[in-house]
Design brief:
Keywords: GTPase activation, Leucine-rich repeat, Repeat. By secondary structure, the chain is an alpha/beta fold. Among the domains are: about 100 residues, Up-down Bundle (Acyl-CoA Binding Protein), CATH 1.20.80; about 110 residues, PH-domain like (Roll); about 80 residues, no CATH class; about 130 residues, Leucine-rich repeat, LRR (right-handed beta-alpha superhelix). The strands form 2 sheets. The protein has a 17-stranded parallel sheet. Strands 4-3-2-1-7-6-5 form a 7-stranded antiparallel sheet, covered by helices on one side. A hairpin with a 4-residue loop joins strand 5 and strand 6. Helix 2 crosses helix 4, helix 2 runs antiparallel to helix 5 and helix 23 runs parallel beside helix 24. The protein is elongated, with a radius of gyration of 35 Å. The two termini are about 55 Å apart.
Length: about 775
């Protein structure tokens, strides 16, 4: 049916039968002052929503997403993370909520984005959501327009929009506004033999415009102009010249409607980030290059939350030279773009941190990275770790750093940088009061450059120094390399983190580190893993910690501390734990050759400590008959330990099960028992799973089979505490995990990690879908 119905005509007179489908739309799109009729409200909402979906009201992607999220709120209520997640809208289709040009690609991503905005609308009622939808839609410059294709008197094709505030002429190709004639400037609209004339005032001069169209369209256009004029507020019409319109019939009172809203036209892009994403997507489309999802997500999150992009995190994105080139080119174009002054514009590209770590970027591409840094003088943090920077790249970076007045941190771990490159970097940061973090782990740095570092540390403001993985020869301490580095740090009031792991340090170097701990009153984190230090160094470090009141994290892993250690040395080394002045919260002593006796003494002294909350004892032979010392039950029951790792400590069988049952009621944030074998009385394992109060439980590499998982499934279903369950490197298959879904897993369990289960490899995608569809899990890693 292609005509307007009138309420004064009966259904019979307009030939409507009982089987007739009537497709209706609003003739006048105006917002009432008060809309108390839910039916009328819904009709207005559906009219606006359909025009947006069908792109009769073209709008930026940002507004389209906000509107779609509001519609989700009106339709489904508050976001339920267990239900409203990726895949929920697959059957309905995103085309019900988003314009097709927006929603046609990557269903999963768009659902994540919509539900992210949906969560922010919690508490909004259905009617509030409908009103909010209309209010947001009114920001669209084409809102309320009825469009007609026509021609001017020289046969140029135009698009005419008629709305409550006047008429608008657009270019049909790109919808750019050619002319705006509001009712305040309209003088007359008159019928002609072919088409109609519009007369309007510009700078007190009456202009005329002839528009050619069919008789049917002409009548509809002129009727709309007549009727919208009558619906203008009285004070508007009284202050305007009265045009030659005829008074229409069957209309509401103008006083019932809000005055026309000021219409603000937008450019194609409303901000730097919108231009950046648009240009980037176009580059990728032309070259058939898959856009980097991580980059799009970060840009969209900033656009949706109306915040500037300060950090660009592209770590581990498999970036090759072409992918990086598209990104840098798009950023350059976005920065160079000059917006039209007549449109609203937001400056929201203000990078202060970039992370390109662990990609495949070569030296040549670094020239482009460093040249693009010139556009961001506020840059504070740069991370290029895990890329082939080399000496050449480090020298280029040092020149760039000299221009960055606000630089605070540089991370260049595993970048194949040698003495020459690091020397240039050190020279560029010398005397910089803003510079705080230098990470140069796993490079080719030798003694000569480290000696220079010692001299430069007198004139730097470092708070974090990471030199791990550089094979330092620190045999002679008095005049040696390590001494030259630590000497200026002994009294530093700024240094907070030092990492000298895997540096080939010997016993004398270890003793020098203990002296550093004793003299420095500011250090908060020390990592000296993998240096093969012996029990003598362990004792010296333990004694120095008795007077240290600043250290919070200590990593002593992968050393030889427990080899031939005596009972007396154990008590001397761990005595600091009982000191009330100790601030240590995290201790990693994994793979240090500690035995059952050490573990027993350590657990006993832990009962007197209230600060130490995270302990890693993995890869130490601390068990007897498969169980650790019983004193660990008392240590854990004290309640201050929140993270415990006892992986690969020879815990197995009934001994392990007894230990697990004894600590099941202890409230932990993380309990990690990887590489253990909970084999034996299944009832004990079921009891543990039913009562375990750990938020994260890891039993990776523990020979867990489908049958074992099926037997503990019901107990897991009763558990109200476990939120993350990690079962990597086990013997699970699709069949076992399907059986698990029948156990009614409690909704508190939100994540399941089942990586590297060989029997799952070929069915990974199917299993992930089954688990997400049939349980309340929010995340499955497989």
């Amino acid at each position: 049916i292609d005509f307007w119905t009138f309420p004064i005509l009966s259904q019979k007179k307009i030939y409507l039968q009982t089987q007739t489908y009537v497709y209706s739309k609003l003739k006048h799109v105006k917002k009432p002052r008060e809309l108390n009729d839910p039916v009328a409200e819904h009709l207005l909402f559906k009219h606006v929503q359909q025009n947006i979906i069908q792109e009769l009201y073209p709008c930026p992607e940002r507004i389209a997403c906000v509107l779609a999220a509001i519609e989700l709120q009106s339709k489904y209520g508050d976001n339920d993370p267990h239900k409203h997640r990726t895949g929920y809208l697959n059957k309905i289709g995103l085309s019900e909520f988003l314009p097709q040009t927006v929603s046609r690609h990557d269903y999963a991503y768009w659902q994540e984005r919509l539900f992210s905005i949906h969560r922010k609308l919690a508490g909004t009622t259905q009617r509030e959501a409908i009103k909010k939808y209309i209010d947001v839609a009114r920001q669209i410059p084409y809102f309320g327009m009825t469009f007609f294709e026509l021609e001017d008197d020289v046969k140029a094709r135009l698009l005419l929009g008629v709305a409550e505030d006047g008429l608008f002429l657009f270019n049909t190709a790109n919808l750019s506004l050619l002319h705006c004639v509001t009712f305040r400037s309209l003088v007359a609209w008159t019928k002609k033999d072919v088409g109609f004339d519009i007369m309007f005032e510009e700078e007190d001069i009456v202009q005329s415009l002839t528009l050619i169209t069919s008789d049917v369209k002409r009548k509809e256009i002129l009727d709309l102009l007549d009727e919208y004029y009558v619906l203008l507020p009285d004070d508007w019409r009284n202050s305007m010249k009265k045009p030659n319109n005829s008074k229409p019939v069957v209309l509401d009172r103008p006083v019932d409607y809000l005055p026309p809203q000021k219409r603000t036209f937008m450019g194609r892009f409303g901000s730097r980030l919108e231009f950046l994403k648009g240009y980037y997507m176009e580059c990728c489309a032309q070259s058939k290059h898959i856009p980097l999802r991580s980059m799009c997500c970060q840009i969209d999150a900033c656009i949706d939350n109306e915040v500037p992009l300060n950090k660009l995190d592209l770590c581990e994105c498999n970036l090759d030279n072409q992918g990086l080139d598209f990104i840098l080119k798009s950023i350059g174009k976005a920065l160079a773009f000059s917006p039209e002054v007549i449109f609203q514009w937001k400056e929201n590209l203000d990078l202060q941190e970039i992370d390109f770590s662990d990609n495949f970027i070569n030296v040549e591409e670094y020239r482009f990275i460093f040249s693009f840094l010139d556009f961001f003088p506020k840059m504070k943090h740069i991370n290029l770790s895990g890329n082939l920077v080399g000496n050449q790249g480090a020298i280029l970076l040092s020149k760039c750093i000299e221009k960055l007045k606000s630089i605070e941190s540089i991370r260049l771990n595993n970048c194949d940088i040698g003495n020459k490159g690091l020397t240039e970097l050190l020279s560029s940061i010398r005397g910089r009061s803003t510079f705080k973090v230098l990470e140069c782990a796993k490079n080719r740095v030798a003694d000569k450059t480290l000696s220079l570092l010692g001299k430069l540390l007198d004139d730097t403001y470092l708070s974090v120094l990471n030199l791990s993985g550089n094979k330092i020869d620190a045999g002679i301490i008095d005049a040696g390399i390590l001494g030259s580095i630590l000497k200026p740090l002994d009294i530093s009031k700024r240094i907070e983190v030092v990492d000298l792991s895997d540096c080939n340090l010997n016993t004398k170097a270890g003793i020098r580190i203990a002296l550093f701990l004793e003299s420095n009153k500011n250090i908060q984190e020390l990592r000296i893993s993998g240096n093969k230090f012996n029990s003598e160094v362990f004792v010296k470090i333990g004694l120095s910690l008795r007077t240290n009141t600043s250290l919070v994290k200590l990593d002593l892993s992968n050393n030889m501390f427990g080899d031939k250690i005596t009972d007396k040395q154990i008590k001397e080394a761990i005595g600091f734990v009982s000191k009330p002045t100790s601030q240590l919260e995290e201790l990693n002593i994994s793979n240090c050759c500690f035995d059952y006796i050490f573990a027993d003494e350590f657990a006993k002294i832990l009962t007197t400590n209230s600060k130490l909350s995270s302990i890693n004892l993995s890869q130490n032979p601390i068990s007897k008959v498969g169980t650790p010392p019983s004193s660990w039950k008392d240590a854990l029951s004290a309640g201050h330990i929140k993270k415990l790792c006892m992986s690969r400590c020879d815990l197995t069988g009934t001994g392990l099960l007894n230990f697990m049952v004894s600590i099941a009621g202890v409230q932990l944030d993380e309990l990690i028992l990887d590489g253990c074998e909970p084999i034996g009385d299944i009832r004990m394992l079921q009891e543990f799973f039913a009562n375990c109060r750990s938020k994260l439980l890891s039993l990776s590499d523990s020979k867990i089979t489908d049958d074992l998982l099926a037997m503990i499934g019901p107990s897991l279903g009763k558990n109200r505490n476990i939120e993350i369950l990690i079962l990597n490197d086990n013997l699970l298959s699709k069949d076992g995990l399907e059986r698990l879904t029948h156990s009614k897993i409690n909704k508190n369990l939100s994540e399941l990690h089942i990586l590297r289960n060989p029997r799952l490899e070929k069915d990974a995608k199917v299993v992930a879908k089954i688990l997400m569809d049939k349980t309340l899990l929010r995340k499955v890693l497989i």
